[in-house]
Amino acid sequence: MLFGSILGPFALPLYGCLNSNMRWSPLLSLRSEDLKTYLWLSIPIMVGFSIVVVDEWIVKNQASYLAPGALSYLQYGRTLLKVPIGVFGMAAGVASYPTISRMVAAGHVSEAYAVLSRAVRLMLLLIFAAQVCLTLCGFEAAYLIWGLFSSRFSVADAEATAMILVFLSLGLSAWAAQTVISRGFYALGSTWLPTTVGTIIAAVSVPLYVVLRQTFGAVGLAVASSIAITVYVGVLGLLQRRRFEREAAARATMLDDAPGMLDGFIRMAIAAALAIVIGFGARQVLLFVLPGIGLAALLIRAAALCTLGVAAYVATARLLRLDELVHWREKLLPGLRRKS
C-alpha cells in the first residue's frame, strides 16, 4: 500500500514533469509561499470530518449494536460499491481536473464549469448503469467472490450482502459525483467550503443513522448512508454553481445558462429505477429456469441480468432524451465499426 501511494501520487506525476522537460529540484523552506499555500489548502482536508470520511466510521459504530454479521455485510457491500466508484468516478475526476485547473488559471471560468458539468453528467450516465447491474446481480457477485472462490460466504451471507447492496447503491451516483465535484473546488483553490459543508452534514446526519438503525437494522444504516451522501452532493453542487458564477462575474463574464452538473439526474434515476424493476421480474424467471450456485449458473445469470438491465436503462434513457447518451453513442459506435 505504501509503495503504491508513493508510485501513484508522487512518482508518476514526477515522471510526467521530467518527461515534459520541466526542471525539478528538491527544496525545503518554511518561508516558501507555495508551501504556505499548500498547507492552507490542505488543513481542512486533514482535520475536517466530512461525511465522505466519517460515514464509514458512523456505520461501523452503529452496526456494533446489531446482530453479529451485520457489520460484515455492510463492509462487503461497500467493497462492491467501490468498484464502479473507482472505475468511473475517480477516472472522471482525475481526467477532468488538469483541464479545469488550466482553464480557471487562464481565466476561462465559464468554459471550465462547462467541462466540469459535462464530466459529471457523462459519468453519472455510466454510474447509473453500474447501479442497475449491482442491484440485479448483487447475490451473484457476492457469492462468486466470497462464497465460491474463498468459502467465506454461505448462500444466506451472500443474500444478506446483496440486500444491503441494493440500498447502498441508492447513494452510488452521489459517491461517484463527489469525486468529480470536489475537484471543481480544488481547481478554484477552495478546500474549506466542501470540507465545512461535509462536516456539518456529518454532524446533523448522526441522529438519522441512529433512528434508521433502530428501525430497520443494517438496511437502515445503508439507507442513512445513501441519504447523507446524496444531500451532501446536492448541496455541494448548488454551492459550486454559485461559486463559479461569482468567479465568472469577477472576470466580467457569465456562465451563459450552462447546464448544471446534476441536470438530467432525475431522468437518469427514473431510467435506472425502471430498468431495475424489469430486471427483478426477469430475475425470478431466471432463478426458475437456471437455479443453482455453480460457476456456470452464477455467470450466466449475472451476464443475462446485467445485459437486460442495461438495455432497459439505455432504452428508457433514449425515450427521456438524455443528451449524454448521444455523446457516448457517438464515441462508441466509430470504435465498434473500426473493429468490425
Describe this structure in words.
This protein has 340 residues and is mainly alpha-helical. It has 12 helices and no strands. It has helices at residues 2-19, 33-47, 51-63, 70-105, 109-148, 155-168, 172-187, 192-216, 218-250, 265-289, 295-319, 323-339. The chain starts with a helix and ends with a helix. Mean pLDDT is 85; it is low at 335-340.
What's the total count of β strands? Answer: 0
Query: Pairing-aware structural class of the strands and helices?
Result: mainly alpha
Envelope shape: globular
Q: Helix-strand pattern, N to C?
A: HHHHHHHHHHHH
Oligomer: single chain
List keywords for this structure.
mainly alpha; 340 residues; 12 helices; single chain
Summarize the structure.
With 340 residues, the protein is an all-alpha fold. The protein has helices at 2-19, 33-47, 51-63, 70-105, 109-148, 155-168, 172-187, 192-216, 218-250, 265-289, 295-319, 323-339.
Give the SSE layout.
Layout: H1 2-19, H2 33-47, H3 51-63, H4 70-105, H5 109-148, H6 155-168, H7 172-187, H8 192-216, H9 218-250, H10 265-289, H11 295-319, H12 323-339
Helix pairs in contact: 3-8, 3-9, 4-5, 4-6, 4-7, 5-6, 5-7, 5-10, 5-11, 5-12, 6-9, 7-9, 8-9, 10-11
